[in-house]
Write a structure and sequence with these properties.
- With 249 residues, the protein is an alpha/beta fold.
- The chain folds into two domains: 149 residues, Rossmann fold; 74 residues.
- Helix content is 51%, strand content 9%.
- Helix 4 runs antiparallel to helix 5, helix 7 packs across helix 8 and helix 8 runs parallel beside helix 12.
- The longest helix has 21 residues.
- The protein is globular.
Length: 249
């Protein structure tokens, strides 16, 4: 039985939450809300790092959703000596409070892509899952802003390009530890995509785990959201990695 963790990372608005929620249906797997423990550059254990972890309103809301009290988290944080140690302790508490039957945890925090090298070091046997989506739809979703709203085209594009660049270097360093799938293929052909992913992370597959899940690709009307010049800007900024993934010619 494999109980090594894996990490879903990449760009926001690319289907990471959808993928996590699908995998949560597997009886062996459990995943909390986003942790962000490897996202920020502040050194672990410093006052700024501790303040960020304790007071960030998003993380506090996530802990509430994870059924972990603030007192429990303070104790976990006080006993932790590194980001990896914090991650392990938090996940142990999450499993205890929410899914004792699970044999394995995974984390879904797309912005942890910025700390992917540290994750690879702290968890030397862990694997990474990258779900990638057409940058036009990612930038469109950021402009619509239902979850994250970014009006500035340059900023929205760099959510996508910076994630792609980090993943590219991670694959260069650890080619056998990174698995990629496309949002479009996942939503169009769910079961084969999930079967391939579970095979990569050495987990059992049974289509009955996912029998009630329905997915359809979602595209945004780019012409209603952007001017022609803005679309050209998106294709220019995202061009290198857009071509790499076959989204642009």
């Amino acid at each position: 039985m494999n109980n090594e963790p894996f990490f879903i990372i990449g760009c926001v608005r690319s289907g990471t939450t959808l993928l996590r929620d699908i995998l949560r249906n597997h009886p062996n797997l459990a995943s909390p809300e986003e942790t962000h423990y490897f996202r920020w550059a502040e050194v672990f254990g410093t006052p700024l790092s501790q303040m960020q972890l304790l007071n960030n309103q998003v993380l506090k809301k996530h802990r509430e959703m994870d059924n972990i009290s603030e007192d429990e988290f303070k104790t976990i944080l006080e006993r932790s000596s590194s980001r990896g140690d914090l991650q392990k302790r938090y996940m142990d508490r999450y499993l205890l409070n929410n899914k004792l039957s699970a044999t394995r945890w995974f984390d879904k925090t797309p912005q942890n892509v910025y700390g992917s090298a540290m994750i690879a070091s702290e968890f030397p046997r862990a694997k990474f899952v990258h779900i990638v989506r057409n940058p036009l739809n990612v930038v469109s979703s950021l402009r619509i802003g239902k979850v994250v709203k970014i009006e500035n085209i340059v900023g929205a594009c760099n959510f996508w390009t910076e994630a792609a660049a980090n993943i590219y270097m991670l694959k260069k360093a650890f080619p056998k530890r990174v698995y990629e799938l496309r949002y479009e293929q996942l939503t169009e052909n769910l079961l084969p995509e999930i079967e391939g992913l579970l095979d990569f992370v050495d987990e059992s597959y049974d289509k009955r785990f996912f029998k009630d899940i329905k997915t359809t690709p979602k595209e945004h009307p780019h012409e209603n959201l952007f001017t022609e010049d803005e679309i050209k800007t998106i294709k220019r900024i995202c061009g290198r990695w857009g071509r790499h993934y076959g989204y642009f010619k």
